[in-house]
Amino acid sequence: MASSLENLETQLEMFIENVRQIHIIVSDFQPQSQSVLNQKLQSLVHGLQEVDKLKSQVQDVHVPLEVFDYIDQGRNPQLYTKDCIEKALAKNEQVKGKIDAYRKFKANMLLELSRTFPNELSKYRALRGDE
Fold first, then answer.
1. What is the pLDDT of residue 2?
2. Which residues have a Cβ under 8 Å from the Cβ of 47 and sit 6 or more positions away?
3. CA–CA distance from 126 to each of 81, 104, 105, 119 (Å)?
4. Mind giving me the DSSP string for 114-131?
């Protein structure tokens, strides 16, 4: 699997470099550059065909749509993973805080119930097997 991804990455890098070179040729076009431009365009078409051939080898790779949003916004897609981890950590802290609050509430409630209803609480604990 890794070699398929590496092949795709190599093809895409070559494609991007080819597009960059075409941009340079076109931005300062000279009639004598036509044959070089034609070669680069043929190479571009060939690169797309190579990428198309590789698509079946990487079809089981799932990319969250949000990653494409990051790319569209000009952000590094690796930041998506970092942001997800940070959000998960923040949510984890929030949930941990709620759990701690519920534990404190339960302890206080049991303390007050034991003061107010000691017999009933003893029966409750006996039924639960908490004694």
1. 54
2. 11, 14, 15, 18
3. 49, 22, 21, 11
4. HHH-HHHHHHHHHHHT--
Instruction: Identify the H or E element spanning 98.
Output: helix 78-116
CB atoms within 10 A of CB 33: 14
Residues contacting 124, CB < 8 A, separation 6+: none
Q: Which amino acid is at 33?
A: S
**Total length of the chain:** 131
**In the structure encoding, which two tokens stand for residue 17, read together?**
């470099």
Alpha-carbon distance of 47 to 18, in angstroms, equals 9
Range 86-97 average pLDDT? 96
Q: Report the C-alpha gap between 58 and 6 in whole angstroms.
A: 10
pLDDT digits (tens, 9 = 90+) for 33-78: 899 999 999 999 999 999 999 888 888 888 899 999 999 999 998 8
